[in-house]
Amino acid sequence: MLRLFFLVLPLWLVLSPATHAQGLQDILQVHAEEVIKPGRRSVGTVLDDLAASGLPQAIPFLEAWRDRAIVRRDSDGLFFRERQDGDIYVLYDLDTGARQEADPDDVTQTRPNGGVRRAISNALVQFQLSDPDIGKRRAAVAAIARSMDASQLAPLQASIAEEPDAALQATKARLAGMLGALFGENSDVRIASIEALADDLSVDVRAVLNRVLSTRAGVAQTVPQDANIAQLLEPGAQITPAQAYAQLVAAELAPPLVEADAIRAALIANIDADRVADVPVSALGTDAARLRAYDALAAQGVVPQRVSAAQQQSAVDAHVFFLAYDEPDRAVTDAAAHALIQIETRVAVNQTVDLGLDALSLASIYFLAAIGLAITFGAMGVINMAHGEFIMMGAYTGFVVQQVVPDYTVSLIIALPLAFAITFGAGVAMERLIIRHLYHRPLETLLATFGISIALQQLAKNIFGTQARPLTSPQWLDGALVFNDVIAISYIRIAIFVLALVFLGLILFVLKRTRLGLEVRAVTQNPGMAASMGINPDRINMLTFGFGSGIAGIAGVAIGLYAKVTSEMGADYIVQSFMTVVVGGVGNVWGTLAGASMIGFLQKGIEWFNPSNTLAAQTYMILFIILFIQFRPKGIVALKGRAAAD
To answer: Between 223 and 644, whose confidence is greater?
Structure first.
């Protein structure tokens, strides 16, 4: 009966009020008993007539009926929508909405049960598919998607052509395709719908196909010819012999096993004068004795016989075990299985691409964090354990700027050069005051910079506290670039990747196309020869250290948009930064890029194999890098020149 309700629904929008020969009250009087005491089977008649009437007031009536807010006045048998207005009991006319006071003792409440209320809710969803309010139409589509039912297919298909919103129309068409795969009127329609879904990678489409391919376990003496067999199960291979026999017992094709507890209970229940079937109770201390006593009872017919291992195996061998599709049509299940294989193959490919994008994003973060260290470490041979704190200083610079400049885009534009300037100055100060006195003494340099890193962390805690501070990205960096249901990458990660490319180009330009870069390369390759050519190595070391520290500050702003900003955030990147520099090749920009790429892809690859334990993934990565350095100690791209000078 609901079919008529769904088929006439699209006529609502074109029906003129002048064509309504009846009011809502007239229809309800015809079905007065069904309205006051509705049942799951009888409610369909009421809903069909309401749909055929085309009355717009039917929707608020259905909503009120579902919410048990419809009453019948006993004095005249008319139906109203009730409401308690303070101490006054008010009734509203269902056709005109007129308000009138009433005596609560003169009304009878309608109380539809759960099944009726579900039927009314389903009917309302169909009404809402063509509602002028797009919000209600979206809610109706979402409700259909949550609980797919065959009755929803016809009204959903009827509403697609009239849907004015292109995005919602596409959603309706896609949902109609999934419903068609499940509830199409014949095999050809279902197969066509399934084949159309083969290009969709979404989880809900895969759920629909898995629903078509749902199976149940079965057992028989021979393979049933009328069953749609999904797989034959071989005991000892796909299922264990114990599982196979348990399936026989469940199907009442074999006697149940007698468990140890049942044996014990039977023995206790049959103790007679300190004996159980001529076996003394004192002798029942072993499993063998208990089984002998139980078998004696079974021979007397007192308890069920035990099933021996040979009998179990014989019963299993005499039957066929299988999985059968719940869907009886072989053509439909074949189409669904083929479509699911296609989708899963494409999902695997897209997951690989998505993993590659994640690895590329992580590599760009490591590159930004390490490039400044590569310059200072390569040009000066200084092991700067405070490099992570320069990253932290840059992140906090971005936070402070955002407190002053509330526009996040403008604050980001200001924060990047300001972070460079602040960390450049801090790097120059550190080089002039401490590092310059420790050249060619790597252990003392390491200890000194480690102490500086602790001091900078404590200073940050004193100023900003121990709680993480937000570094908010501009609105245009919110969200993600979504290619499909599998591949997506956040705009912040894209921005960091672009920033890494920009800095790669900038650093290459400075080192290859400027006088400073020429002098840095000269000092890096042979400081003695550079000094003899009029270059001041002391000045170049100062500027190089400051330049590397300034880049770390900019990296801090970028990383702060993605990660937490705390006084200890530098410690999260110092180990990866050193690994990136060492693996890539000390002092080489291209080597740093190669090292960051290798570590980023390696870490993501290990995390893919062990996604629940990122600490283990990092441990495996460090072990791999240690082995790598054993075979290639100078890194992927080895620097030339300094070894000769040393």
So the answer is: 223
Q: What residues form DSSP beta bridges with 480?
A: 490
Q: For residues 255 and 253, give the distance between their C-alpha atoms in angstroms, rounded to a whole number.
A: 7
Question: Which of 324, 332, 492, 291 minimizes the C-alpha distance to 408?
Answer: 492
Measured between alpha carbons, how far is residue 255 from residues 302, 381, 600 in Å?
A: 16, 81, 60
Average pLDDT over residues 220-230: 88
What whole-number distance in Å separates Cα of residue 467 and Cα of residue 461? 9
Here the contacts of 165-174 (C-beta below 8 Å, separation 24 or greater) are 165/134, 165/137, 168/134, 168/137, 168/138, 168/141, 171/141, 172/129, 172/141, 174/200
CA angle 244, 246, 252 (to 5 degrees): 110
DSSP state of 38: -
β-strand pairing of 275-276 with 279-280: antiparallel
187/373: higher pLDDT: 187
Helix (H, G, I), strand (E, B) or coil at 192: helix
Alpha-carbon span 644 to 399, nearest angstrom: 45
Q: In sequence order, what are the residues at sequence separation of 6 or more whose Cβ sits closer than 8 angstroms to the Cβ of residue 632?
A: none
Q: What is the mean pLDDT of residues 485-494?
A: 86
Q: Which residues of 581-593 are buried (b: 16+ CB within 10 A; e: fewer)?
A: bbbbbbbbbebbb
Note whether 333 and 212 are within 8 A (CB).
Answer: yes
How is 583-643 classified by DSSP, letter by letter? HH-TT-HHHHHHHHHHHHHHHHHHHHHSTT-HHHHHHHHHHHHHHHHHH-TT-SS---SHH
How far apart are alpha carbons 634 and 19 in whole angstroms?
A: 89
* Sequence-ordered list of residues with C-beta below 8 angstroms from that of 383, at least 6 positions apart, any chain: 377, 442, 445, 446, 449
pLDDT, position 11? 39
What's the chain's average pLDDT?
83
How confident is the model over 445-459, as a mean pLDDT? 89
The DSSP string of 258-285 is --HHHHHHHHHHT-BTTEETTEEGGGTT
Q: How far apart are the first and last CA of the chain?
A: 93
* HEC secondary structure over 472-501: CCCHHHCCEEECCCCCEEEHHHHHHHHHHH
State the average pLDDT over residues 341-352. Answer: 91
Q: What is the pLDDT of residues 398-449, one digit of tens each?
A: 999 999 988 888 999 999 999 999 999 999 999 889 888 887 787 888 889 8
Asked whether the beta carbons of 324 and 230 are under 8 A apart, the reply is yes
Summarised one tens digit per residue, pLDDT across range 74-108 is 888 888 988 877 677 888 888 888 888 888 888 88
Q: Enumerate residues 6+ apart whose C-beta is below 8 A from 89.
A: 82, 101, 102, 103, 104
Alpha-carbon span 432 to 436, nearest angstrom:
6
Torsion of CA 525, 531, 534, 538, to 10 degrees: 100
* Angle 77-78-80 from CA coordinates, rounded to 5°: 135
* Amino acid present at 114: G
Instruction: Take residue 510 and report the two structure tokens written for it.
Output: 């400075």
* pLDDT attached to residue 335: 93
pLDDT for 640: 55
